[in-house]
Write a structure and sequence with these properties.
By secondary structure, the chain is α/β, with parallel strands linked by helices. The protein has helices at residues 17-25, 43-50, 59-64, 67-75, 93-101, 114-122, 148-159, 189-199, 223-226, 246-256, 260-263; strands at residues 2-6, 28-31, 54-56, 78-82, 106-109, 133-135, 164-168, 170-175, 178-186, 204-209, 217-222, 236-240. Its EC number is 2.1.1.98.
């Protein structure tokens, strides 16, 4: 059996009760944290909290040669866990399909995602979100501006009146000079806002910082204004609103401090 477990958004307590029970019942527990991570804890605390041993796998191992995970799942109960939801944004459908092809039973235990949290914290209605996008560090795509694919996603959503979640780049194990096992870098919302204000338009945006934590922050303003603020520790994301229902406008004003003049535009 191979069980995919989403650990939630912040620390060792963010996993569901069902996920916690599956972790403790597993013969072996594997994890990856290269796409996202629990910034409120670390592997040592996760292991201590759930009384388990965790084998953290690098990206290449999971994507190109997951034989260790699959062999273990063929002979016993294996848990494979990630931050957030294990099948949303951090997608491991390929691993699940490989397991099914080998006759290994699989199941998914979901965790809270950054996108669902963004809707909940901002008051923007979840069914009014369009396609999400990721804003990379300039060095990661070989340019100093905002990639055209990011702009195209935002503008296509806005033409349909839809909101856009902009995930912010994470670099773990690789940096500006290439592979670096000690490198760990998280794009902050102020950096992202500055890039978008200069490379796209200076429009209304919403910062969501540390969703799921006791110190979550939600702030709405022009991108240029957000670029001048410090939103603290990661993880951060941006939301670019589309057309706003009056309840959504009220939510951005009351929950995120959006200026009235931006909501009236």
């Amino acid at each position: 059996m191979l069980t995919f477990i989403g650990l939630g958004l912040y620390d060792e307590r963010s996993v569901t009760v069902e996920g916690r029970e599956a972790l403790r019942a597993a013969d072996r527990v594997f994890a990856e944290f290269y796409t996202s991570k629990l910034v409120g804890t670390d592997v040592v605390d996760l292991e201590a909290s759930h009384d388990i041993d965790i084998e953290v796998r690098p990206r290449e191992s999971v994507e190109r040669d997951p034989s260790t995970i699959l062999d273990a799942a063929a002979d016993g109960d294996v848990a494979f866990c990630t931050a957030g939801d294990t099948m949303i944004s951090t997608t491991h459908t390929d691993l699940r399909l490989r397991a099914e092809e080998r006759g290994i039973d699989t199941r998914v235990i979901h965790g809270v995602t950054a996108q669902s949290a963004a809707s909940s914290l901002t008051g923007l209605q979840n069914y009014r979100f369009g396609k999400a996008t990721t804003l990379p560090f300039p060095y990661a795509h070989g340019g100093g501006d905002v990639p055209e694919s990011v702009i195209e996603t935002i503008e296509t959503n806005r033409e349909r009146g839809l909101h856009t979640v902009v995930y912010l780049d994470i670099k773990v194990g690789t940096g500006p000079t290439g592979l670096d096992p000690d490198h760990e870098e998280y794009m902050t919302a102020d950096t992202a806002a500055e890039l978008l204000a200069e490379g796209w338009e200076d429009e209304l945006a919403v910062v969501v910082a540390r969703a799921g934590s006791p110190t979550a922050v939600v702030a709405a303003d022009r991108l240029s204004a957000l670029a001048g603020r410090d939103f603290g520790d990661p993880l951060h994301l941006l939301v670019i609103p589309g057309d706003l229902h009056h309840v959504e406008s009220d939510a951005l004003a009351g929950l995120a401090g959006a200026p009235d003049e931006l909501l009236d535009e």
